[in-house]
UniProtKB/TrEMBL annotation:
Pfam families hit by this protein: ABC_tran (PF00005)
Basic and acidic residues compositional bias, start-end: 283-302
Low complexity bias locations: 1-19
Protein name listed in UniProt: ABC transporter ATP-binding protein
Species this protein is from: Catenulispora pinistramenti
Family the entry assigns: Belongs to the ABC transporter superfamily.
Annotated TM spans: none
Keywords linked to the UniProt accession: ATP-binding, Nucleotide-binding, Transport
Database matches in Gene3D superfamilies: P-loop containing nucleotide triphosphate hydrolases
Domain ABC transporter: 64-288
InterPro entries reported for this sequence: AAA+_ATPase, ABC_transporter-like_ATP-bd, ABC_transpr_TagH-like, Bact_Polysacc_Export_ATP-bd, P-loop_NTPase
Domain of life: Bacteria
Stretches for region Disordered: 1-27, 283-308
Length: 327
């Protein structure tokens, strides 16, 4: 499930126009970086989305608005709020957190797709990004054609393309799933097949920094294992990987540093086992709290029902009494 984009940039620095608020505590990730300058440096990063959303999007409301020439109110979603961390070269950084915590948004900023609303992102090296399924490939072209197209976009020579094409196809190993699939349009692929091609292309871009957003989740166990091996190999060669995933065991297994995001904030940064265990504990506590609240609400509702029934009973008795007396 992925797309890829690669930049040839040796040093990318994204800076927001205004840096006003003081930076929160910076999370240094490794003690002995291979390169004294970090591969990634994020300082007081804020990322906001502006959307025009209506509470009640009805045709009537739209017509009234048009007649009255009213504008739809703009809503600001603060996806990332003041996050700072550094990633030395050769790190596999796992990024975990609940749905909507801001993980993918953070990755988009690292890849340069999304400029910071405020703060600073520095990325040193060639970046290859594996993002959401479907982006980056032409669905009507075959897997092979998309690989060649990707190579051309990278500025590879014909020989390089030929050499890498075979290696990418070998790595993706689609034939074991469906013979000849590599020469069929990608719109006919399953999400797992897509993930295989995307991941194979991404790692063959020879990136210094590989950004992976759940790209492996569609792959089967065997492919995940091979992808893991490949990522570790990249990492041994001082390449840096940022892996966003809900697969906590994958993150635990693969990463040597982990950050936990919650509602756009960085909750913890440190050893993967420690961070993941704390995250799991928090999830349990949240679930218990939610269960407790639900039970309390149900008990309250039952009490109110009982009180209403008692009141109705009393009213009925009073009515019967009144009717009886009248009679
Ligand atoms: N294109 C967008 N426009 C508006 N809001 C967005 C957009 N993309 C994400 N958001 C919002 O930003 C917040 C963070 O979303 P993001 O996708 O970064 O979270 P995430 O941690 O990756 O979630 P998940 O684990 O579900 O993929 C959410 O509130 C989300 O609704």
């Amino acid at each position: 499930m992925s797309s890829l984009s690669a930049s040839e940039t040796v040093e990318t620095v994204e800076t927001a126009e205004s840096v006003q608020t003081p930076a929160p505590a910076t999370a240094a990730i490794a003690e002995k970086p291979l390169d004294p300058r970090p591969a990634i440096k994020v300082e007081d990063l804020h990322l906001y989305y502006r959307t025009k959303a209506e509470a009640n999007p009805t045709l009537k409301a739209a017509l009234i608005r048009k007649v009255k020439r009213q504008k739809v109110e703009q809503k600001v979603i603060k996806a990332v709020q003041g996050v700072s961390f550094e990633v030395p070269h050769g790190t596999v950084l796992g990024v975990i957190g609940h749905n909507g915590a801001g993980k993918s948004t953070l990755l988009r900023a690292l890849s340069g797709i999304l400029p910071p609303t405020q703060g600073r992102v520095e990325v040193r090296g060639r970046v290859s990004t594996l993002l959401a399924l479907g982006v980056g490939f032409n669905q009507n072209l075959t897997g092979r054609e998309n690989i060649v197209l990707g190579g051309l976009a990278q500025g590879w020579s014909k020989d390089q393309i030929r050499e890498k094409e075979n290696s990418i196809i070998d790595f993706a190993d689609l034939d074991t799933l469906s013979e000849g699939a590599i020469d069929r349009p990608m719109k006919t692929y399953s999400s797992g097949m897509y993930a295989r091609v995307a991941f194979a292309v991404g790692v063959h871009m020879d990136p210094d920094i590989l950004l992976v957003d759940e790209a492996l989740s569609a792959g089967d166990a065997r492919f995940k294992e091979r992808a893991t091996e490949k990522m570790l190999e990249l990492c041994e060669n001082a390449r840096t990987i940022v892996l966003v995933s809900h697969g906590l065991e994958t993150v635990r297994h693969m990463s040597n540093h982990c950050i936990w995001m919650d509602h756009g904030n960085l909750v913890q940064s440190g050893d993967p086992d420690e961070v993941i265990d704390n995250y799991i504990e928090k999830q349990h506590k949240d679930r218990e709290e939610a269960d407790r609240k639900k039970a309390a609400a149900e008990a309250k509702e039952a009490q109110e029902d009982e009180a209403l029934a008692a009141k109705a009973e009393k009213t009925k008795e009073a009515l019967q009494k009144a009717i009886g007396e009248d009679v």
